[in-house]
């Protein structure tokens, strides 16, 4: 029985309903002319997509995709996250849009990914792959995909309604391939015997299922040494990543591939691989190769191609981690399942105190990892030893671990069997240790140990980058928090409210600022601005700009136009590479008059009983560009009950939205909220922005309402 068959029977037995999803997947694969695919289900209570059904390829080829974070840069994750179909006609398009996926499977095939949704609830997604030379996706095929998604969702919903929800499984349910053709064996045997070339057949797991007499003669091995094994296992001279890569290319792109290899002692053989739904047919023939110099590939180390791609996939995932928490989440969410572990703990090495410090863990008993937190680096314990010596520790079972470390002070978690302790070494110095736990005894092969050691180095480098990022982020946030007003001062006759929402990309900081400045009884100045950039420099310049506006605005002749003129000259003298927009109002609640000047900033909005509208004003140049720039003023009346809105562009900007229409729509919303307290109105105006998970820009809002 093949791995695929055994896996499908055992998984289906413990997860009823997966077979129904599998049949629908098989139907849509045929309907759209694809050759393989998978169904993902969303992990309950977690933003992780778990591969639950697989068809057309062996598990080993897609092991890196068994568990996919909903935020990952992969086609099925984007389809589920953004709730739309993803169509990639070629491997080139896959590399362009999803470079991380292309690193793992750098082959030419078309990809279609589709979400599984019930109303607006994301249940999972599925993808299928086919030949890249297929025509574009037709409307009929799109309907087939949508119909398959509806059928899968109906299956999931019915199972949930019956009290038997379909859950993700540790390994995907593997669909049996379609039965082979039923031609008479005698006819086939005669046909094969007339061919001078050797033939062999591989199943979807890469194992040889049939080999002809001519092939055994060419390969120099008896049939029993070949059938049931993968070629690179049965024939040591084929144990080369270049050759296995050609097999992977054939299976995933569904196109013929070929390579030549030297069969010892001196016979060159040509291998031509022809993939199909049930496996790969291989045509083997003698060939002549005229190589100049050393024979290719014959002196390379026998490293598995799948292992190399696996490391590349995990390394590319770590490059996406910015903060220490990102590193922990990525390692726990993608790397731990990929290597078959059940639990993870990361420790840093405190060189000054010579202690291990826990920075994050997933899956272990909190009391267990707490016992290691603060452990002396000189302790005779596995994590401390890995951290101090740089030597990893691999233990097949708990008994083996306790044999090496019999000290009663070495506390272990009883429900874990296999253990790995990886040193985290960056730039030649120890930075900590990574502890992995396996719920079952685990044999660590030489290749797996090499992979885990490589991962330890990658994790160490990612942690070092993340720690520097966190230090810089904390500094920038401290700068920003110290420079924004902690509260708004009271100005007679004015009710005010302010909101600030940082962007969620980059360093989560920026140069948006606002201020309300009292200038005497019933008088004040209001300012809002936006410094270019989202980094420490933007935050620092924002503080300098706010201070300059405050100083000039409180001067005797602090007219808005003059304040912006002086502030602009100061910024130009500072020779900063950044520039800023600014809007400044001078308020007088006795006369009800407001004077306004702006430097490249969006116009303020006014809303009241008579509706909402945009207050037009001459637009001056951005601050920090031309020291001779001047800023004209305009004047308007602020009637009792009317509300002024000053804002930065993060409040109104969105992909595909016309800015003038967005401003007009925001003015109408402001007018509709005139009956609410100003604090409630501020919450309502920023509610849509606060609900967006990925904000590219900061948002600042300052509301001023004239009291009756």
Explain this structure.
The chain is of the alpha+beta class and 708 residues long. The chain contains 21 helices and 28 strands. Strand 10 (257-263) and strand 11 (267-276) form a beta hairpin. Helix 2 (18-31) runs antiparallel to helix 6 (139-161), helix 12 packs parallel to helix 17 and helix 17 (446-483) packs parallel to helix 18.
Descriptive key words:
26% strand; disordered N terminus; seven-stranded mixed beta sheet; alpha+beta; 708 residues; 21 helices
Topology summary:
Blueprint: H1 3-14, H2 18-31, E1 36-42, E2 48-55, E3 67-69, H3 75-82, E4 86-88, H4 91-97, H5 99-104, E5 110-118, E6 121-130, H6 139-161, E7 173-174, H7 185-193, E8 198-202, E9 208-211, H8 213-219, H9 223-226, H10 231-234, H11 241-253, E10 257-263, E11 267-276, E12 279-286, H12 305-318, H13 324-338, E13 343-350, E14 355-362, H14 366-372, H15 382-389, E15 393-395, H16 398-404, E16 418-426, E17 429-438, H17 446-483, E18 494-501, E19 511-520, E20 523-531, H18 536-553, H19 560-574, E21 580-588, E22 593-599, E23 605-608, E24 611-614, E25 619-620, E26 634-637, E27 643-647, H20 659-672, H21 678-691, E28 699-706
Parallel strand pairs: 2-7, 22-25
Antiparallel strand pairs: 1-2, 1-6, 2-3, 4-5, 5-6, 8-9, 8-12, 10-11, 11-12, 13-14, 13-17, 15-16, 16-17, 18-28, 19-20, 20-21, 21-22, 22-26, 23-24, 23-27, 27-28
Helix pairs in contact: 2-6, 12-17, 13-17, 17-18, 18-19
